[in-house]
What does this fold into?
Amino acid sequence: MAEGTRDEPTERSADAVEAGTLLVAAPTLIDPNFVRSVVFVIDHRSEGTLGVVLNRPSEVAVGDVLPAWGPFTTRPSAVFVGGPVEQKTALCLAALRAGQDPARTAGVVGVRGPVALVDLDGDPDSLAPRVRGMRVFAGYSGWDRGQLAAEIGRGDWYVVPALPDDVLAPPRHDLWGGVLRRQGVPLALLATHVAEPSRN
It folds into this structure.
């Protein structure tokens, strides 16, 4: 983890955001699109940031909208809601198998480590043996220049490292709580917050 100061811990610093990190919603974030969400950052630059929410499964099966890819996506093979922007656009993230280099794997663009963005116009049969799992997202989460930094400064998000398996976490797994718990104190204590504020 990058170093931070006591006055500005890494998890509260916009400087810590980069491709392959997670944005974990603070318990106080009440935007219905992002309550208790975990966002995987796919691209971050001065012009803005793009990511997908990892823990919002829909009722739609991947095979219903992308028949060729349905058999290869991680079970349950549901389309996940990546965010409120362009929800008719599909994005796919994959975790490559050990020894696979994203830069030398056709049909993907590396994000960080073994996690890569999949070209859904490519051939799923040729890519499938090279990946441990894939997940399809409808829409994405996007922030314009300075917007995410302002939200982090306001306390809406914690910036933490991602693990490759985060992008494949099953819907019934409490990814939000799990990611917070593995950060240690004090962030781990936030995982005890229940969904209904009246019960905290």
